[in-house]
Amino acid sequence: MKKIKAFLKDTAKQSIPLLAGLFGAKILSKQATLKKLAAYQMFSEPGVEVTLPPAGETGLPVADIYAKSQVVTTSAIGVYRVSDKIKIHPYGGVQFGREVLDMDFGSALFVKTLLKTDKRPVIKCDTCIVLWSHEWGNGYFDYTYFIYAKLLRIKNMMPEAEFKKAKIIYPLVHTAFEQELLKYAGVTADQILDSKTHNVQATHYYTGNNDSWYYPNKSDLNLLRQTLLPQALAGKTSERVYISRKARRRLTNEAEVIRVLKEFDFDIIEDAPKTVAEQIALYKNAKVIIGPHGASYTNIINCTPGTILIELFPGGYYPDYFRSLSSALNMNYYAIFEDNIGETHYRNLADDLTIDPEKIKIALQNILTIV
Fold first, then answer.
1. What range defines the domain where residue 223 resides?
2. Contacts of 316 (CB under 8 A, 6+ apart)
3. What single string gives the DSSP state of each residue in 140-206?
4. Confidence band (pLDDT; 50, 70, 90) for 341?
5. pTM for this model (two decimals)
6. Per the domain annotation, does 65 fall within a domain?
7. How many domains is the chain built from?
8. Does 296 lie in the same domain as 151?
């Protein structure tokens, strides 16, 4: 059933440009979008090839891609200032005349606009930041690295007075972390508009692009660290922490594993709501972090170089988001897998995992002895 759904989804995506053409619109590819915007570019940072080292030695088997070095290319990013007339759709996408731009990860949602009358009230302003072109983004990782990093990049290229007066439009995700992060960027409530309910017409527009799902540009990482680290909540937190998960990718035998972790003086961090400031402090002060793969590791952007991250994976889902981030941040990265390691696939992202506590013990003995 999963394969059938994936096939139908891919087929639907392939038909989108044809459908848009029937309504007089042209959906541009990522390459065509960047070519279109070249004349408006005010900042660019190319993607570069970097070599991810193998995961550190634990004395346990790992997936093949974690056992060897891997060459990857980081995201190519830019900032653009447009003074021509554009249309911002409810999903946050940008239309330039008849051409629909791909600023992030495709323009599939443009189809939803074809048969609907746009009844959003028009807000006129001098400057508008067009931030995000999807209706997803309410995950902590996605918001931080795709939406918030782009905002900081655009802000970095704008005069301060202009940024403070600019309207910022995108499909809001309505989470507590969204409000807190925007405050740290110096954004006030009156600047923020939801593209689902407002239509902006501005004299000048600023926007930026996303490129890679997995490998952020070092320039964006530096801006995130500069903005977030000063916001850490004051006070002492643990040096060795286990990050629990209660939703998908839950460690099914967690109680047994925790007994082993306590032998190594780990504090258990429950899966409960925390402010961004609390999370920054937790990761900034930690020296060893272990737990199932999950969005909490978004916060390793706040770790000190040399911090150890030990990721626990199910056998069928092990993306290397945090391996690559750990490398970029000069951390020490390790991975522990449950038995029967297969191929990694997105359809398995919700799989729970079970890892023999003795394997955890062996790994920790090796890791903590090395360091």
1. 18-59+70-228
2. 342, 343, 344, 345, 348, 351
3. HHHIIIIIIHHHHHHHHTS-HHHHHH-EEEE-----HHHHHHHHHTT--GGGEEETTT-EEEEEEEE
4. very high
5. 0.94
6. no
7. 2
8. no
